[in-house]
Amino acid sequence: MSVVQLFNGLVTGSFYALVALGLSIIFGMMRVVNFAHGAFYMLGAFGAYVLLDSWQIGFWWALILAPLAIGCFGMVLERLLFRRLYALDPLYNFLLSFAVATIIQDAMRLRYGAQGKPYRVTSQLLSGVQHIGSTFYPKYRLFVIVFSILVCVVVWFLVERTRIGMVIRAATEKPDLTRALGVDVDRWITPVFGFGVALAALGGVLAAAMQQVRPSMGEDLIIVIFAVVVIGGLGSIAGSVVAGLAIGVIAAVGEAYYAQVSSTLVFIVMAIVLLIRPAGLFGSVEGA
Amino acid sequence: MDGLHATNERDLGRKGLTRRTFLGGIAASAAAAILAACGSGSATSTSAPAATATKAAGAAATTAPTTAAAATAAPTGATAAVTKPAGSAAASVVASKGPAKLSDGKLVLAVLNDQSGVYADISGKNTTKLVKQAVDDFMAKYGKDVFGGTVEVIEADHQNKPDVAGQKANEFYDRNQADVILDVPTSSCGLAVAAVAKAKKKMYINVGSATTELNGAQCNKYTFHYAYDTFMLANGTAPLVTKTLGKKWYLVYPDYAFGQDMVKSFTDAITKSGGTVVGTDPSPFPSSGDFSSYLLKVQSAKPDIVGSMHAGGDVVNFVKQYNEFKLRDQKINLAIGLLFDSDIKALGPDAFQGITYTTAWLWTLDDQSRAWADMAKKVIGVRPTFAHAGNYSAAWQYMDAIRRAGTDDPDTVVKELEGHQFNDFFARNATIRKEDHALIHDIYIAQVKPLKENSEEGDYSKILGTTPGKDAFKPDGATGCTISA
What we know:
The complex is a heterodimer of chains A (288) and B (485). By secondary structure, chain A is an all-alpha fold. Chain A has helices spanning 2-30, 37-55, 59-80, 90-112, 139-161, 163-173, 175-180, 185-208, 217-232, 237-257, 262-276; strands spanning 129-132, 135-138. In chain A, strand 1 (129-132) and strand 2 (135-138) form a beta hairpin. In chain A, helix 1 packs across helix 9, helix 2 (37-55) crosses helix 8 and helix 9 (217-232) crosses helix 10. Chain A is globular, with a radius of gyration of 19 Å. Chain B is of the alpha/beta class. Chain B has 15 helices and 15 strands. In chain B, strands 2-1-3-4-5 form a 5-stranded parallel beta sheet, sandwiched between helices. In chain B, strands 7-6-8-9 form a 4-stranded parallel beta sheet, sandwiched between helices. A 3-stranded antiparallel beta sheet of chain B has the order 10-14-15. In chain B, strand 11 and strand 12 (430-432) form a beta hairpin. Chains A and B meet through helix 1, helix 4, strand 2, helix 9 and helix 10 of A and helix 1, helix 2, strand 7, helix 9 and helix 10 of B.
């Protein structure tokens, strides 16, 4: 049983990793703690629902189209709203993202109701269950693990091994110095923001088949995601992935053995990590 | 904005932004407007339009968001304009005596429930609209001057937090002069409000909560428990399911007052009908929406039946994942403790097909229920759940008790309600039991039909049988309530 519970933890963890990754990239580049990230995750899930419901476009296309569309939406928001506040204290952008999150969530609540909509993966390939030991495990969830880890690896490759990634890393660590060296940092902010948003939306599409698609799904997730990002180290890509997977597994195992503590567990871990390593597992102390 | 409605961060967000930037200001005020419109709990009030009841109420309902947005600007956030009823009584009044005496010149009905969370679709803002409708219909029948004053309906969102519910109830009774608090789903919140009602000696009719504690150990003189409870759910569903689907049960329940009470009631009912409970698991409330860990544990325990003791959005997620893990193929059947039409709608009837459950009311019950549901659909746009119907009925019975008693004095109204027997579109062969203030009425065993047998959207279930009230609820003297003592 514990092996399967471990798998289960990885599924939860890969969501955390995907969504936290986007949050981390955005924070790294812009120093914006994007509270609207949960709302973009929720929009991803609704994107999948709308594609299927209105145009009979199935899961595979949704996996590409929904993040693309919501990523673009994110870029528009960045251009129109977030950009205007960069000159001010990052707190203002945090508050703006809070307003954006609330508007999006309540708009969706008005349109689709609080209890949300049904969504099912129509693909034959992913339906059914797989035998693991003495238990059965949904194939779809196995796919989620593999797919999320794949996406994380691709993102890592993009950031660590490509030229664009180099610019992003430089801009993340020393934005002023990077500018001084003649790199147009600002040009990259919008696409990076859009990319981070798309990752959240991708998480949402994956979640649509496992959870009720409802306006508050992101709201519930975002607090845990913040904890994950803090544990991993703000702005650290590897940190969010590792912390995401670890927290998922810890929460699942906690749930299986002592359910009462499962929702608190992540915050206990966060407190411990912050006590021992204030910058998070993979973070570096800024301004030192 | 009233701090009780919005979180402090939201307030902060507004202030910070409006000061500094134009765009941010727009965003924030839009947020506030949408918030108000979507029901983060701004109180609205309605006047009491008379003869043209239905139409006026429809208009009142649709204009509510605007009023709410305006109201949030006021410091209290809970007051809105109240129009006086026209001076003279209507011609066709059925009144037997003069208008009732209202203690403070007005009657205030306060709806307190979940307006944004997992239980919002079960009851939520639509309940407020229907309570307003009940007021209008009541006045259309008995004359707009039946109470000799205005009637207001106000509402708030308790966010499923008992502390918010208690605080809000205090505010309703003290600041808004509420004469009765209605609904209050989420058992922990329902109990919190009962304590306030007891301390303030004010009327409270709970419709939304299921815990038997409300009319059991934590009952009090001013609290009434309308519609349903865990005992009636368990004793309706468990014997039938144990007989037809198997004897070994595994229960998963939300870890708060409602879930804990459900497990107790179901375990008793299962044991009584010859079944056994092989395992129980508490899941966090509010939940993360993921029940897979529990479903895996259920798989390895191999019971005949897994019982979801959840409600609202949690049931929806549980069933979705039950289907995803294909537990039915592994001969583990599903039983659901509490099911509302809104849950079925959220997943589609096919996901629930064949499930039998116990309910306090269904809109397809008979012609009288259907006629009421047609009216309700005009007001709220969807087919009503039993919580919607129960609240309308409770508001009506409360007003009628005031009319009969000729006063809104809580002690007199309590006496008037105690032992009252009636039949309405919701409660059949109903008695408000004197001993514990529970509404005893006929209940129904229902089964979810396949989609192709639905005559229209919302016609999800058929009724398998009716249980008379005296057999459905805890017998007299067995509730542990000591009001009369």
